[in-house]
Amino acid sequence: MSRTQALWEQPGSVAEQFWRHGRADFPIYDMHGHMGAHNAIYFARCEAPAMDAHLARIGVRRLVFSHHSALMGSMRNAAVHRIVEGCSERLRMYVAINPHYPEFIKEDLALFDKWPFAIGLKMLSAYHQVAVTDRRYEYALKFASERHLPVLNHTWGGVPYCGGPQLLELSQRYPNVIFFHGHSIFGDWDWSRRCIVEAPGNCYLELTAVPGLRGIIERLVRDVGSERIIYGTDLPWFDEYQVTGGVISADIGDDDIKNILYRNVERVLGTDW
Ligand SMILES: [Zn+2]
């Protein structure tokens, strides 16, 4: 395919399909979402029914989210699971892990096996100001390791709670955990590469916030391969159309786009969830 032609004019390309129909002809897996209102921003759609309708519109098969209130400790994960039960076609949840509530962690994980719509754990260490390598996460990470669960971390370049060195150490300490590096160690792109190539094969870069930057998806694909990159939006903070458009507009191949938007997740987690 020639790049002198506009992407959406290349017959049969993912871009042409998307520009023409406003959706892809394959399922999309969004592995980084949230839910609930937030005092710092107005969200047009942040509750389950409106989010689910939006996901249907664009062809997202699964959004895995953590509820803002569960991350902050003002709502329990059991209540989040009840929301998903009532709206379970596309929504799946991460159990929010807040290291300041150790008793919540133990109580909630004791229920995990009874929650069919909970598929992994979410850690937000920069906000909780507890480094990902801290002992307060040990119980949750051992639990994830025993079950070979995915753990989505908020990561950010240069942040001592969840930067490259901390994430690499964590992934080497827990080789049976599947780590999704939310925001791809944003801004510290050499560490993004190192956190994949020096880890024991258990890590993936998750793209939330990256598609807004020019040329970074291309760099990450070059550095670690599209097989190690997954898609996420932070919905409702960012919109599915914006972020999917950013991935599809990147100067990478259609196979790379498909790896990022769905193939990698189906390979790692299967399709039966
Ligand atoms: Zn997030």
From TrEMBL:
Domain of life of the native organism: Bacteria
Keywords: Hydrolase
GO molecular-function terms, A-Z: hydrolase activity
Signal peptide (UniProt feature, chain positions): none
UniProt domain Amidohydrolase-related: residue ranges: 65-270
Protein name per Swiss-Prot or TrEMBL: TIM-barrel fold metal-dependent hydrolase
Organism: Oligosphaera ethanolica
